[in-house]
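$ ./design --mode recover --in tokens.txt
reading tokens...
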């Protein structure tokens, strides 16, 4: 139509020109044809998620399919999500239309722990809100290059104990920038940066959190131009024991810290539960803290509190931990109306200041240097008006000291400058759909290793089974294996197979998973028996999960079986399946079984390793977690004959390095074998169900809790260990494991819960494993000693 119109205009112009022309010039204008403006160029890296039906699925698929350089743009509006989101690709941006305009509401979330987790580098989140996450709001882990800008995390309940623990939560990260954001209602800390390096937190507003902003066990941080109002404590700087990094070098300046008088609503057992209501700033056990040019007013307990770890009431057996704050320098702040109602700080402390002026603006416990003052280089220095330092509590008996005790200074700490990455990773040119289809068309009778580097849309594309519709037996050149003690997944049965390319071999490891070569495929199919008491009743095939060892590392792919059994389709976004069965106790049970999205799979399979060619930098990798020698050292049936699984792999020439004496392998007993040692059974169960995260290089490494089978049962294993970051998951309890008292043990409490913000493991199940909980309960109650 447009072409016809333009042609008519041109012809009309020529006719007018001919009618008026006498061979000379004409002053009449000549009609010009319309010129169509070129279309705006389409940015190939921009992925726009439209509002409407299927929003959650389309968003999850975009996050999973993202490539370096992609910008995923969210629309304006409020969107309900019932599962966690994840980003594990470098150099990705997730952007909304504004922190009030784009709202992701997780109030109905039932799957996953934190609502948005990021485990990759150079990721930017901006201009959207996360509302009512059941646990943590946004968590970065193992990331280098963390930027959160104009983000809002809010619990609409206000200051409620049942709220999640952390709003913005980078942990074990580097190069962190959090700016222009808002957090409301965290039951631990609104903005929390832990065990990280090179941090800038600026221009944020935090309110009605227990801790507004918390820097914990981190190095080289700056906190400035923030507003902390109506929290229990405005800004906290902590260094805690038994963690991977010691805290040092923090500058806190140009902040407004006002009216932080919200009663402490942290669940009992959390370290922030010791923060007195009405604390402007709290510095505990940290070295090299400089606090200057802040406005601190209307905080009922004190403007600034500087304390030793011992005052928390928690204990530690960390031999390298120094609980005393050192090299703290406070100067040039503005104070008004602090300490007017300090009873929550401590009644006995407040009683020391009965004279004019009441409690001072700055309170220092002095425990670390009682009887032996610090050397000059470690002193606590305060350069303020004398009315501020008129009397500062010092020593375990509350001795008053005057301002002269703090008359010293420390050199200014250097400004924190965030690294600029040397290069941005660029993804390879993606294959066309036609090229993927060709690769996913099997040739021959063996596994289709040619398709290893692509995500085939259906499971049959990898040709793993002689019968494509029967994933429980007859693997094409695959080796079946089982585990002595398996991971619990809602009572599902599992069929496991390993496929190793011809001529390649896996290597034995005494502690880690077998080291499989590039090209390996591990397949695990999940089924639910219809009747655990009647094998002939059959079972429902639910899903098949693949681990593919590609050239750049392992990839995780979930395939969901169609209910009519005609095949399994790639479901990157995961899903649910309603199941009903007769349990082994004769009862009828049911659940909405959760099929994890691809990123959730990666959460459990994540680990950190040194970067290739680097002795210092770490990178996140995906690893298998089940096929470890201690779980594989058992018999299976191959071609009608029983053989040890590890020995069979060695005989098939796909495993090298196997010890000649299989009895020398530290092997777990079956968790449900009543004749086996109780503690060994319990440790094996915790290993397979928990240690993939609770290990020094796992996703929960920041907890300081490590649960591998071979570890000694001590504080690091949970004995009398206080949690670092349990939030409401503590259940008001104080220790992970209390010998002799399972009811007082957080580990048992979390295993016995199915609440999204409490349960452990936090993903991978939708039911409580009653029998597994009973085992751990029996073991904990068998221990002796208790906790002080």
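writing sequence...
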């Amino acid at each position: 139509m447009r072409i016809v119109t333009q042609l008519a205009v041109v012809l009309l112009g020529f006719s007018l020109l001919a009618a008026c022309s006498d061979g000379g010039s004409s002053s009449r204008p000549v009609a010009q044809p319309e010129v169509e403006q070129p279309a705006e160029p389409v940015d190939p890296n921009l992925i726009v998620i439209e509002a409407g039906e299927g929003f959650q699925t389309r968003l999850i698929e975009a996050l999973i399919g993202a490539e370096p350089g992609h910008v995923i743009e969210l629309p304006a509006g409020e969107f309900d999500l019932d599962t966690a989101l994840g980003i594990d690709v470098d150099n990705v941006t997730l952007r909304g239309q504004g922190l009030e305009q784009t709202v992701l509401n997780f109030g109905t979330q039932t799957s996953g722990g934190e609502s948005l987790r990021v485990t990759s580098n150079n990721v930017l989140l901006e201009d959207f809100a996360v509302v009512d996450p059941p646990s943590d709001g946004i968590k970065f882990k193992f990331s280098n290059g963390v930027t959160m800008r104009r983000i809002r995390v809010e619990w609409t309940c206000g200051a409620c104990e049942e709220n999640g623990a952390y709003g913005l939560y980078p942990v074990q990260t580097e190069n962190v920038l959090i700016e222009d954001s808002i957090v409301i209602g965290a039951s631990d800390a609104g903005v929390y940066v832990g065990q990280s390096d090179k941090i800038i937190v600026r221009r944020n507003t935090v309110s009605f959190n227990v801790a507004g902003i918390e820097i914990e066990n981190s190095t080289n941080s700056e906190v400035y131009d923030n507003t902390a109002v109506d929290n229990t404590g405005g800004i906290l700087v902590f260094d805690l024991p038994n963690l991977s990094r010691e805290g040092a070098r923090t500058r806190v300046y140009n902040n407004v810290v006002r009216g932080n008088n919200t009663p402490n609503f942290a669940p009992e057992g959390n370290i922030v539960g010791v923060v007195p209501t009405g604390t402007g700033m709290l510095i505990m056990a940290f070295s090299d803290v400089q606090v200057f040019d802040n406005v601190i007013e209307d905080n009922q307990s004190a403007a600034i509190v500087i304390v030793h770890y011992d005052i928390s009431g928690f204990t530690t057996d960390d031999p390298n931990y120094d609980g005393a704050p050192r090299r703290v320098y406070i100067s040039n702040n503005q104070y008004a109306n602090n300490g007017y109602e300090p009873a929550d700080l401590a009644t006995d402390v407040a009683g020391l200041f009965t004279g004019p002026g009441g409690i001072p603006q700055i309170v220092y416990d002095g425990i670390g240097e009682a009887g032996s003052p610090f050397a000059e280089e470690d002193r606590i220095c305060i350069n303020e008006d004398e009315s501020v330092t008129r009397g500062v509590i010092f020593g375990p008996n509350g001795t008053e000291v005057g301002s002269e005790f703090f008359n010293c200074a420390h050199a200014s700490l250097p400004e924190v400058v965030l690294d600029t990455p040397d290069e941005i990773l660029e993804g390879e040119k993606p294959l066309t759909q036609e090229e993927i289809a060709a690769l996913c068309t099997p040739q021959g009778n063996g596994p289709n290793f040619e398709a290893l580097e692509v995500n085939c849309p259906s499971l049959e594309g990898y040709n793993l089974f002689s019968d494509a519709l029967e994933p429980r037996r007859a693997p094409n050149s695959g080796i079946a294996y089982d585990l002595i003690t398996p991971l619990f997944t809602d009572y599902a049965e599992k069929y496991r197979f390993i496929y190793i390319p011809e001529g390649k071999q896996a290597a034995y490891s005494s502690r880690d998973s077998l080291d499989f070569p590039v090209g390996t495929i591990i397949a695990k199919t999940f089924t639910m028996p219809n009747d655990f008491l009647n094998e002939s009743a059959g079972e429902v095939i639910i899903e098949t999960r693949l681990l593919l060892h590609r050239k750049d590392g392992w990839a995780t792919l979930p395939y969901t079986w169609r209910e009519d059994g005609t095949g399994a389709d790639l479901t990157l976004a995961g899903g649910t399946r309603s199941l009903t069965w007769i349990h082994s106790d004769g009862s009828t049970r049911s659940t909405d079984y959760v099929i994890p999205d691809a990123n959730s799979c990666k959460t459990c399979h994540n680990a950190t390793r040194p970067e290739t060619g680097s002795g210092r930098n770490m990178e996140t990798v995906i690893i298998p977690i089940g096929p470890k020698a201690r779980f594989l050292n058992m018999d299976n049936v191959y071609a009608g004959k029983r053989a040890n699984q590890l020995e069979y792999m060695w005989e098939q020439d796909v495993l090298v390095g196997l010890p000649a004496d299989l009895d020398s392998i530290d092997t777990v007993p079956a968790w449900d074998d009543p004749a086996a040692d109780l503690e060994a059974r319990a440790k094996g169960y915790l290993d397979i169900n928990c240690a993939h995260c609770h290990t020094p290089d796992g996703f929960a490494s920041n907890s300081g809790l490590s649960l591998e089978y071979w570890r000694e049962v001590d504080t690091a294993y949970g004995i009398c260990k206080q949690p670092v970051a349990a939030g409401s998951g503590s259940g008001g309890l104080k220790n992970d494991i209390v010998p002799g008292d399972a009811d007082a043990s957080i580990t048992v409490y979390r295993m016995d819960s199915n609440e999204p913000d409490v349960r452990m493991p936090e993903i991978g199940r939708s039911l409580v494993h009653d029998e597994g909980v009973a085992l751990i309960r029996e073991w904990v109650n068998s221990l002796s000693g208790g906790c002080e």
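exit 0
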